[in-house]
Amino acid sequence: MKELLVVPQIDSFRTFKEFADEFELGPADLILTNEYLYDPLMKDADTGSSFIFQEKFGGGEPSDIMVDEILEQASKLDFNRVIAVGGGTVIDIAKILSLDEATDVDSLYDRDQLTRSRKLVILPTTCGTGSEVTNIAIVNRTRKGTKMGLVSPAMYADHAVLVPEFMKSLPWNVFATSSIDALIHAIESYLSPNATEFTELFSEAAIDKILRGYSRIAKDGRQVRSEDDEEYLKAATGAGIAFGNAGCAAVHAISYAFGAKYHVPHGESNYQFLTEVLKEYRMKKPGGTIAELEKLILDTLVKYEFASEEESDGFTALEGLLSEILELKPMGAYGAVPEDPEDFAASTVANQQRLLKNNYVPLTEEEIETIYKNRM
Ligand SMILES: [Fe+2]
Q1: Do the beta carbons of residue 127 and residue 175 sit within 8 Å?
Q2: How many whole angstroms from 202 Cα to the centroid of ligand 1?
Q3: What is the pLDDT, as a whole number, of residue 63?
Q4: Of the candidates 147, 158, 211, 223, which lies 20 to 30 Å from 106 by C-alpha distance?
């Protein structure tokens, strides 16, 4: 039985300049990033590297169209190392960019085996995806109408580099949605049938760090968030190690059809379904890991003085804390229509078996449809 695999070396630096010096960035490097990160934090390092600014190719999360255009642009450049500096979108595209003979997204999904000759270095600038330590890229396949994961050992980075200075300018909404995503990675991998004692250590540490930070925000206000930037960054990477090994499950699976249709950021669409799925699991199989998770959450919230000793419903208490970080709106507020639950449930069952197989308990298509209906 596989206990734990951590492929990239994890490094940390105080600033991008320190990283650039240590890694000897130069003309043979292609840096995929965003201009709003380049201008204040990378420009002065003067690396002589090629830069591609992802946002010039469209907003939001990676789509087949966006990635194909970036691959076309990169094909005109000469580079032997890809450096990703950004959030999940930039990281996932960089993973694809680093692959051998990557000319278009669709053909990569059709290929039996992917290979990579170039080096890949990832600097996450949000505190969510954990993508810096996983071997998967998620692309919105607009031609198929859903988000799908492209998975290969070739997409593990050589280095994941943590530089907390990038988090300073993170807007509240990006902080909220990305850190909630990290929390969900920790929770889904904790409940996964593939969890091991080692992945549990990473899940528990990530849950503790994030709930500690959130409890501080609930008590002292949003301005204390940046004091814990490094903690959130480490929590996100730790949760990435946990889900990279144990796998995510129903919350992610159910969120994709909704997120793809209404262009809802990944963490925000996951947030939509988190406690709904946890409560469904608890109802179907109340003993076992779900009870351990609920106790862990409740004990943590009591420890950090968000919940009282009398509180008995851990998932409702969690909802209360999360609502201090991000408002939970019904799906209707994003434009969802009455036929969506049935269509989304069919799409989830058809396209997301990779995730659904990691569920704490199996969910039928009807149960998935009910979860969507409960969020309308
Ligand atoms: Fe996620």
Answers
A1: yes
A2: 16
A3: 94
A4: 158
Distance 114 CA to ligand 1 centre (A): 23
Q: How far is the CA of 242 from the centre of ligand 1 (A)?
A: 12
Quote the ligand 1 centre to 182 CA distance (angstroms): 7
Q: Model pTM?
A: 0.93
Cα 286 to ligand 1 centre (Å): 25
| pLDDT of 146 higher than 80 | no
Q: Identify the residue whose tokens are 């593939």.
A: 194
CA dist., res. 133 & res. 240, Å (int): 6
pLDDT at 357 over 90: yes
Q: What residue ranges define each of the domains in the chain, with the CATH number in brackets?
A: 9-166 (3.40.50.1970), 171-374 (1.20.1090.10)
Tell me the two tokens of residue 82: 């890809």
CA of 241 to the centre of ligand 1 (A): 12
Question: Ligand 1 mean position to 129 CA, how many Å?
Answer: 5
In tens, the pLDDT along 86-108 reads 999 999 999 999 999 999 999 99
Exposed/middle/buried for residue 226 (C-beta within 10 Å: 0-12, 13-18, 19+): middle
266 CA from centroid of ligand 1 (Å):
6
